[in-house]
Amino acid sequence: MNCVICGSRMKKESQNRYHYTASGLSRVYLNGVELYECTNEECGDEGLIIPMLEELHEQIATAIASQKNKLLPEEIRFLRTYLGFSGGDFAELIGVSPETVSRWEKGTVNMKESAERLLRVLILSRKGPFRDYEELKEFATQKRKLPKKREFKVHSSGWIEEAA
Ligand SMILES: [Zn+2]
């Protein structure tokens, strides 16, 4: 593989735990990605290969949507973009103003519990009808908490969240 910037050879870096900041989430780590670095030191470009990216995002979204803790602003944004909505479209969909969505994602205003539960059901119903009403009652019942880490590992069957 050659560097797309300078054409030099790319060297594979061993990387056991990759901090996936491009997700917009501050504590997500990946196990099983391939990181390449350009051998031209003046260039230093990096290339990242994440296998089964779509499935990974589904696993991350499911983990976030299933937690009891209220969503963090960065988690609201991740779930909204995972669903493929712009801030404006999402606002229209759930019946609030675009400014409200923007405030939720900046953390200046707290998302109402009912809106949070709706967002989570939108995520969790992608795999099939969501009927776990007992679980629904638990959503967003505990205060916001930045997780120590969320670690995901790729297996032949797909991405699996590792116990923290
Ligand atoms: Zn390069």
- Counted by DSSP, the helix tally is 6
Overall pLDDT metric: 94
Order of helices and strands: EEEEEHHHHHHEE
Shape: elongated
- Ligand names: zinc ion
Based on secondary structure, the structural category is alpha+beta
Biggest sheet: strands, sense, closure?
4 strands, mixed
Helix content: 25-40%
Question: Which strand order spans the largest sheet, edge to edge or round the barrel?
Answer: 2-3-6-7
Strand-residue proportion: 15-25%
Number of strands: 7
Radius of gyration: 18 Å
- What is the straight-line distance between the termini? 34 Å
Tell me about this structure.
- The chain is an alpha+beta fold and 164 residues long.
- It is built from 6 helices and 7 strands; from the N terminus they run βββββααααααββ.
- It has helices at residues 53-65, 73-82, 87-94, 98-106, 113-124, 133-138, and strands spanning 10-13, 18-19, 28-31, 34-38, 46-49, 150-155, 158-162.
- A hairpin with a 2-residue loop joins β6 and β7 (158-162).
- α1 (53-65) crosses α2 (73-82), α1 runs antiparallel to α5 (113-124) and α3 (87-94) packs across α4 (98-106).
- The longest helix has 13 residues, at 53-65.
- The protein is elongated, with a radius of gyration of 18 Å.
- The mean pLDDT is 94.
- The structure holds zinc ion.
- Zinc ion binds at residues 3, 5-6, 8, 38, 40, 43, 45.
